[in-house]
Amino acid sequence: MAATPTFASKGWVVPPEEGPHAATIMMWPVNRRVHPDLELLNILQDTIAEIASTIAEFETVYLCAHPDDWANAKARVSSKVKLWDIPTEDLWARDAGPLFTKHASLGLAVSHIQFNGWGKKQVHKRDSLVAAQVAERLGTPMRPSGLRGEAGGVEHDGHGLLIAHESSWVNRNRNPDLSRDQVEERLLTAYGSSKIIWTKGVKGQDITDYHIDSLARFTGQNKVLINLPDDPDPYDDFHKAALETHDALETAGLNLTVIPEPHPKARRIKSIDFVASYANFYACNGAVIAAQFGDREADKIAGKALKQHYPGREVITLNVDALGEVGGGIHCATQQVPLA
Fold first, then answer.
1. How crowded is the C-beta side of 172, counted as CA atoms within 13 Å?
2. What are the domain boundaries of the chain?
3. Strands 287-291 and 282-284, bridge-based pairing
4. Is 70 exceeded by the pLDDT of residue 3?
5. Mean pLDDT score of the chain, rounded to an integer?
6. What share of the chain is helix, strand, coil (3-state, %, to 5)?
7. In 10 A of CB 19, how many CB atoms?
8. Class of 12-338 per CATH?
9. pTM for this one?
10. CA triplet 273, 279, 281: central angle to 5 degrees?
């Protein structure tokens, strides 16, 4: 890893996620060390196929997979999904895939944050190479950030502001030799941003060390949706961290409009480890692809909020419980390629 970032941030900005896309990058889960339960792996593949096929109705989807896995993938996805010969282990394109930055005159580049299996918690021999292989496929230059981590661990508005949990970045399993100030400087450079709102987060209780994209999401400049429990448990570290993040956003002095979303209670999956986040949605061209969890009231409220934040886009909700069972959601499984 480079001792310092090797490119200047001047003129380079990671565009807002809700901006126009050229395509979406996704990844095909196959590794049996990662997913030893074959039944769950099959459900995960069906889920990824459904998400990819749904997005492909609105924009191009490139699904990364080893050619040995193409027959299985093709049998599940729509004919509009394009398969790329980029071998994968797991499905988390938000974390292992490339983060694209844009320059008004120079076009696109990959602002590269090196994936290391969420701090070497998971095998990532293939996945750690996905970002570079996508960049090569697209002919896009790589611009090293000097950071190890994941794009799911930082939320950006494309207008100069970031939100992140320290637990995902200022952590010996990612950036052991960097202080928070050094991590902040490199994140701001990588995203072309000017300010970051930090909160503590939660270390060591989930594989991501509490990614921000399952809690709070920018839906535009000065607008944040946050997924909060209606009845917070004072002994639950994630509930406490969520409230701390909410308070930090409310008091940031940045004229932010922070709108709480409900937390589903009457959901299909009751496991305490299940990730039930309405915030983990994906905004593609003309649509928002979001989760529903079987709680009719909360699902309806969340869908209505997304329609208000994304007027003119179709809101499509899917049963992605399989992703929640393995710690993520739709946003975690997708990565946008901005329109150059």
1. 1
2. 12-338
3. antiparallel
4. no
5. 95
6. 30, 25, 45
7. 14
8. alpha beta
9. 0.95
10. 105
